[in-house]
Each structure stands twice: as C-alpha cells, then as structure tokens.
Write a structure and sequence with these properties.
heterotrimer, A alpha+beta, B alpha/beta, C alpha+beta, A: alpha+beta, Mth169, Chain: A, 3-stranded antiparallel β-sheet, 2 helices, 3 strands, 29% strand, C: alpha+beta, Phosphoribosyl-aminoimidazole Synthetase, Chain A, domain 2, 7-stranded mixed β-sheet, 25 helices, 35% helix, 24% strand
Amino acid sequence: MKARVHVTLKPGVLDPQGKAIANALHSLGFDGVKEARQGKVIDLDLDDTDAEAARARVDDMCRQLLANTVIETYRIEVDP
Amino acid sequence: MKSAVIVFPGSNCDRDVAVSLEQTTGRPPVMHWHADPALPEDLDLVVVPGGFSYGDYLRCGAMAAHAAAMTGVRKAAERGVAVLGICNGFQVLCETGLLPGALMRNRDLRFLCKDVHLRVETTDTLFTGHYAPGQVIRIPIAHHDGNYVADLATQCALEDEDRVVFRYCDPAGKVTEDANPNGSLDNIAGILSEERTVLGLMPHPERLADPRLGGTDGRPLFASLLEALS
Amino acid sequence: MTTITPNIIAEHGLTAEEYQRVLDILGRAPNLTELGIFSVMWSEHCSYKSSKKWLKTLPTSAPWVIQGPGENAGVIDIGDDLTAVFKMESHNHPSFIEPYQGAATGVGGILRDVFTMGARPVANLNALRFGAPDHPKTRHLISGVVAGIGGYGNCVGVPTVGGEVNFHPDYNGNILVNAMTVGIAPADRIFYSKASGVGNPVVYVGSKTGRDGIHGATMASAEFNADSEEKRPTVQVGDPFTEKLLIEACLELMATDVIVAIQDMGAAGLTSSSFEMASKGGLGVELTLDRVPMREEGMTPYELMLSESQERMLMVLEPGKEPVAEAIFRKWGLDFAVIGHLTDTGRMVLTWNGETVADLPIDPLAEAAPEYDRPWEPTPPAPVVDAADVPEVPWTEALPALMGSPDLASRRWIWEQYDHMVMGDTVQRPGGDAAVVRIHGSERGLAMTTDCTPRYVRADPVMGGRQAVAEAWRNLTAAGARPLAVTDNMNFGNPEKPLIMGQFVGACQGLAEACRALDFPVVSGNVSLYNETEGRAIPPTPTIGGVGVIDDLDRMATVTFKAPGEAIVVIGERPDTRESGWLGQSLYLRELCGREEGAPPPVDLEHERHVGDVVRGLIQAGRVSACHDVSDGGLLVAVAEMALAGDMGAALTLAAPSAAALFGEDQGRYVVTVPAEGVTGLLAELGTLARHIGDTGGTGPDAAITLGGAEVALSDLRAAHEGWLPGVMGA
C-alpha cells in the first residue's frame, strides 16, 4: 500500500522559500500569483493492507518525525 | 565539572566544543555515541554540538531528536543537569521539545558563516554569569536554518521570564533589523528552558574562545559553566 | 549479447586504431562490458593520453616530497612526523550542466582522494571561473556552484577557506570548477593504492551503486531502451552525510592494521579503482559483481563497472581481518561487502550469476594505453603595450572602478556561504593572500592558495604558466610561509587543435621553469581538456594550488593595516621599471580602457625568488606588521586592499604617479608595513629593492587614501568593493 505525506508550513508561518518562489514567478511575468507556499512530499511504501490502519500509522509517523507541528502541518493520502 | 558531548552521525563541531571545554575546565568531556541511551553518571553538563546530524536531510535536528542518546539527555535535563545546544544542537533541542519554538530557513535562504554581534540579555543563568548584563560580544554563526520562530504565547513567556539570553545586535549593542542575520523573531539568538538549565543558541561560542582564532568572546560562556557547576 | 558495431565503438570514444589495439590485446572481439572498461581506462581522464608527454617534464621531487603524482593525492613532509596530503581536481562540465550537484560532487571527489591516503581533510579551496557577469546564465551558475560547494563542504565539516574567482566571456559556455582539498596525515600512516597479497579480500565500502553518471553516449547501444534511459540519471548526486561517515569510518579503520591498499571510486568507478590497484601491484583481480551493493534493481555488469555513484571506496584487506573492518563500517551505517580477491593471473576477471562476463589482461591494457604526441604550435608573441599609448585616467576614478570590477571585487558574498571556521583551526580566514589553518594541537600552520591569471596565459602561455606558479609562491610567502609544493589543474580547450595544444605545452614549460626555480615541485594534479563550446576554447587556465608551512604562528603575516603611523614600503621593484610600469594585460587596461591586449608582465624567476626570500625573512624576524603581494590591479590596488582590511587609511607620497606606476602589474613585488622605529634600518638594508611610499593613518568615517593632493574615502572604496557581487546576485 502506498501513502503520500504532504508537509507544508502552517498558515501564517513565514515561508521564505515560498516568498522567493513567488518573487521569481513575478519576475518571469506571472503576475497573477498572489502567494506561493512550498513544502515537501514524502512517499511511503507500506506493508499495511487496511487503509484506515495505514492512515493511523502514518499519522503517528507525521506527529513523531515527518512534520514539526510547531511550524508545519501535514496531509496524508493513502492509495490502496 | 564533568561534561559529555553527544556525537551523532554527521556531528561536526563535536571536536571543536570538546577542545573549548577542555581548555576552560582542564578536563576533556566524554564523547557520547548517539546509539547509547545511558549517559555517563554524575554529569554536570551535556553538550549537543553543531553539525549536520543525519545530514539534516528531513529537517534540521529532526532525526537526531529521536536518537537513543536523546532519551538520556531528556532524563538528565529532568534531573536538572545543564544542557547546552549549539547550532544544530539548538535545532535538536527544539525538535525534542526541551526548548520551545523552531528554527527555520534563513531569511535570505543562504547558508551564512560570519561573525555577528550579540547582546547578552541576561546574566542570571548558569551559562552567562561571566558576562556583564547588556555586554556586546562577537561570536560567529554558521547555519542555514537559524531563523527562530515561536507562537505569541511562547514569545511572551520568553520575554516575561527573562529567558532570551542572546540577541543579534549591531556593534554598538542596538538590536536592529539590519543586525539580524537570519530573520529570527525579535533578533533571538539563544534561549533558555523554563527551568533555566537548558540553553540553545545558534552562534558558536567555541569558535571564538582562543586568541589564535581572532577572539575570545566565547570563552566566558564556558567559564561561567565551570564556576556554576563545580 | 550485443554486437559491437562501429557506432558503439565511436560512442565509447575509441578511435578505429584504438579499437584495433583492443582486438590485438584480446585476440578476439570484446563484449560490451569489456569495451566499456577499455573506453574508461583509455579515456583522456584516466590515461592522460594527450598530456602525459608534457606532464612528465614537470619537476616532481624534493627532499620533502613523500609521494608525487600518480597516487590519489600528493604527500609532503611538514615536520613533526606529519604530512600534508593534497590535490586539486576539476568538475567543469558537470557543474555547467547542474551547478549545485556538479560542484558538490566535485568537492566530494577531491575529499575522497585525500582521505583515501590516510589524511584527515583540514581545508577545502575552490578556483572558479565564470562567464561574463551579465551573461544570462552566469548568475544561475554562480548561485548553484557556490551553494553546491557550501552544501557539501559545510555538511562534511571541512572548512572551505580560500580560492579564487574570475569572470570572462570566454567561460560563458564552459565554466571551471576546480576543487582542492588539503589533509594532514601521520608520516607513518600513509595509505597507497598498490595491491599486494594473492588471495587477499577485495572489499567495497560506502554507498550503494546506482546508475549515476553513466554517459549519455553509451546509452544508445542495443541493450538499452527508452525505459532504461529514463531511470539512468547522468547527473551524479552528492551525499555529503554519507561522505562524512565514510571519512570517519575510513580514518577509524586506518588506525588499525588491516588495510593493505585503498582507492576511492572516482570518475571511472569500480573499473579504474580495481584496475589500478591490481595493476600497481602487478597482480590480477577477480570480482563477483553480484555482491556489489546495488541501489536499483536490474542493474547489469556494464552499469556496475561504469557507474559513477559517489561516496564509495575499494580496499584490499589483510586476510581474515574482514570482521574488524565490517564492524567499523556497520557502526557508521555504511555498506560493506567482500566482492572479490586478488589473484596471480594478471587478469581482471568479472563474474555475474556464475558466468564470466569479462576477462582482460591488466598489464597489456595499461601499457597499451594510447599516448599521443599531438602536433602543437606556439602562441604568436603579443606586442608589448607602450604605456605612453594608454590613456591616463585620474587615480581617484580608476581606483574605485578597479576595486569594484568583476575580477577584483570582494568575494564575501561567496565565502560567507562556506563554513570556513569549522574544525576550529582557521587562523586566516578567506580574503587575504593565503588561507592559514593551524596544524591541530600545535602552534604551526599550513598556508594554502590557488592561483592563475588566465589572460596572461592566453597572451603568453610560457610566461602565464610561470606567473601562476610564482603568484602561488608569492601568496604563501606573503603570509610568512615556506612554500613547499603545488598541485596543478590544467584546464584547456581541444588538444587536437595545434594552437590549443601549444598553449598546453607552453604552460607546462612555464610551470616547470617556475617550479624548478622556486623549489616548488608538483606533487599531484589533474588535466581537463576539451573545454570548448561551439568551437570557442576557454582561456587556458592552469590553476596552481600551493601549500606551505608556517613554523610559528606568532610570525604569520596578514594583509591588514595594523596601526597608524607605520611606513608603507614596497619591496621588489626593479629600479629600471619603477616609474614606467607594465600595463600589457593589466586590469587597468581592460577595465578602464576596454583593451585586453599585449604581452603579459614578465616573470623573472631569479628576482622573484630573491625578493620572496627577503620578504619571508622580514616576516619571520617580526620586522613587518603586514604584508600583501602585488598582483591583479597593481600597487595602488594592493594598498587599497590592505587599507580596507584594516579599516585604516593611507597617505601616499609618490611623486607625479602615472597610471602605469600605480596600476601596472609588474611581478615579484610586495607591499609591507613597518613600525616607525624600524623603517630607516630596513630601507638602508634593502637599498633599491625597497621604497617608502607613504604611511598608514586615519580611521573611522574620515579614513581615506590620499595621494598627490587628492583623496578617495575608504567608505567609497568599500562600497564599490563590497557592493559589486551582491549587486550582480541581486542580494
């Protein structure tokens, strides 16, 4: 079973990389970009067979290691 | 004073801080391997050194925070043993929750290695007794992720409880935006835990504790510890 | 089984004649894996086929040289039973394609060359050449290369302490990234690549092998389809964390007595490492490729042998000592596999799934490696520029313009991204003449520098070659060091063109003359040819990395003005050219007159040596308070750099100075400062070799350089000097 974790900075936390991306897009002429936020994607290959159990386990992983919940938030996709 | 330096795979300032500890205290620290949860007995000080623990590949300090040795560090901290986290060590201590807040990518997104000026905000600590209140010192930084952030409640608590130890300032001691090298909240360079026994700071006091290297402003930090802990 | 077609042969870079040699050696047609091995071993990179004839003319020995060229790095005796181990290597093309990873893996590769010899790396330097600052690619390349060097060096925890950067439109399509590492090893614990002991285990350690860096050209063969192409990255990705572990694990193992021979897997991976170890030992080697730790599924023997995956090493161990080594590598979380053993057959035999997939004779393959005496033509001499034909720009305009010009502006924006202090021994940080790193636990230091002035080399390869060596020697001398040896990184265009080959030949001649005259032998090096884009070659760039020793750090010199009221003295002027000055190929001529032309300044090696020995003597005797060599930009630029470093002005007393006298780039000169009480004695002693040109003085906002009734504020100079690069980089 595959799971994908999206880790992004919490709304309101300054994102210098996202800001740089937005600036770069503006300088390329993409004027309509109001904001860019960046994050990371972590793909996991799991031996779970139950999607809910997998989700719970990945949630645990996120809280313990994959995301720093002081500044980051995460979203989990499980692909059975 | 008996001290230990935690060595993670990827630590690279472990030797540097060991040299400073030995020069100041006359006694070499125990170099403690990350995989061993049991710290030496009777420790007065644990140092979590600078470097790139586990390559800092997920997030600075994130993987080191889960190393076996950190269980021992946490227990030691609970017993009141002094803990000093420098640079990557500060990041590790934030990731473990021993210190509040987090360290994000520098404002300009670049790694930055240079001398900065710091104002000593409090001398009521185990770490800064040998400085004068408000003293301006020159210490190098070398980091990519030193941009301190914390929520409002933490920010207030740090201020109210006199737990901000160092702030980036100009050579005259003014805390200005221009003197802030990385975008840190309120120019914060180093903070204490609630119990005041854990200090994390981004600058490297061990890098200017030897006149041969161009300065000794880092030395009083180690001297303070020696006096407070012996 | 793939049939070897002329197309496949050509894609492997072998000529028809070279392929015939393959057939003669084997007595049969090679299979694809074998062809791949031949192509790698006979590549320019491994065989030095165009350059070998001329490299042999370089002086490589001295009483203090322990290991000259031919090993992973050179080794010199630095006293106290210690050695310095160093080398410079290029990573030009990869850095142009993917600047971050190209530069990062360049640093990783040169670090491995040094710790393979048993040395702990103590410093990195980088000589970089970029295209025109306003070329659309330049900014992206600078930012990627600098971040890559920093990203790798900072993480492994080796300080990046120095180097140089030039800009020239002729590097627009072909930048140069030359990385140098200096390490320190105990004299009785140097490790070499010569294998010995039939039956001894051959061990693979480090990262797993993936499909990194297998060249695009070899992908067209019938075995590969579109699918495999997709999963075969040709850009190698560096893993500095693994490198750091590899350094610690290797050094830990080297403290035991179990290593017979060790070799890093560099550009030609498993092929050249196993081949060279066996070849040097006059032995054979048998490898079971199934045992190679693999990162990806479905890898072929061909890929395993040609992969350029980083952070890998090959070792021959004492028999029965595998567990000792394995325990150390496991502790550091690294792969460890016994993949074969040494034999007495003199052949390289590779097996895969129980079948022999390659069987090659080692000595004939090495001996038959092509060596060419390529036709060459000398560079026609350039006319000497007459200073009288050069416009006079007032010095108050010329100096700020030069200080803020691409080749002279401050590199702070770059070196602040490098951790130049980790390891706690950096006693001279970037920005001076030479970087100085304390020998850990002592009061002695290693001074190091990288130098080359490509515009001089292009105008006159022999003189430019001399100058590159002389400047490295001068920079070490200016720090008070005894220059000991160099590593050379020869970056040139296509050697099949006689004029380019002539540049190479000329530069080698100049290098050899200077190294001999200055007792400054070459102990290691690297050649990078074919640096051309659309038929246009880079300026010839023989980068010299120099290393010297400072026996007492209390007697080290820096460029910084120390105190007001000290005499500023120039040492080394020749009385006949004192007032004239050499403007040919000078930055004044290029930056202020738009002319890059003329013969470069001559380098008189006898004069160079004499002046340098005098200056070093003064530094070692504690008679001068600051010292700086005069190079790019000439005398006034040297004084301005010292003033900026010390944040202190200078009042110069030169009478009616011409642009040529102020900005001429005559060689063999130093500027020193002398405390007032020592001036008279020093001037009397040195006679016409020294000239008192002014005094230090003035600090704070009013600090300025004054001359002939005019002045330039230091703050203006600083703004020009510090502002240029951040301006280009937009930050």
